[in-house]
Amino acid sequence: MSPPGTYFVTFLTWQRRRLFVVDNYARLFLKTLYSYRRQTKFQLHAFVLMPEHVHLLLTPLNDVTLERAIQLIKGGYSHAFGQEFGGKEIWQKGFTNHRIRDAADFERHRFYIHQNPVKRELVQRAEDYRLCSAYPGFKLDEQTSAAEAGVA
């Protein structure tokens, strides 16, 4: 199990299917993500939903491991998706992660997340991509002093 901390996480849709080009699918993912944030399963610092993958910058809370947080997000979305749109395979198995070491590492990964749609030429400015935390209006958690020290 991963040690406590703040993590940059990536996971892929099944067979890299371009799932999040469908507005209803993307909205449901954000609803699921924010539901677990409200339940204080994790702090959410940044995110982007690309057509076929997701990047998150988060800090698990209250004895929730990173693995459990991702299980909740992916499993919760798969369940909600099946209820609303019918069952099908949603995610590739597993995820990749990088434990944030310090404030500079945090900023590098947040910048990477926000610039991902720009790099892929989906938008010219990160603030214009509606499925990214750079887009105005998303509630995010500030970087905690523990995350800054790399020990969150």
Keywords:
single chain; 38% helix; alpha+beta; 4 helices; four-stranded antiparallel beta sheet; 4 strands; disordered C terminus
Give a short synopsis of this structure.
With 152 residues, this protein is α+β, with helices and mostly antiparallel strands. The protein has helices at 23-38, 66-85, 103-119, 145-148; strands at residues 7-12, 42-49, 53-60, 96-99.
**β-strand amount:** 15-25%
Distance between the termini: 15 Å
Report the average pLDDT across residues.
91
User: Any low-confidence stretches, pLDDT <50, length ≥5?
Assistant: 146-152
| Element pattern in H and E | EHEEHEHH
Count of discrete alpha- or pi-helical segments spanning 4 or more residues:
4
Classify the helix fraction into a percent range: 25-40%
Estimated radius of gyration: 15 Å
Largest sheet: 4 strands, antiparallel
Tell me the layout of helices and strands.
Blueprint: E1 7-12, H1 23-38, E2 42-49, E3 53-60, H2 66-85, E4 96-99, H3 103-119, H4 145-148
Antiparallel strand pairs: 1-3, 1-4, 2-3
Helix pairs in contact: 1-2
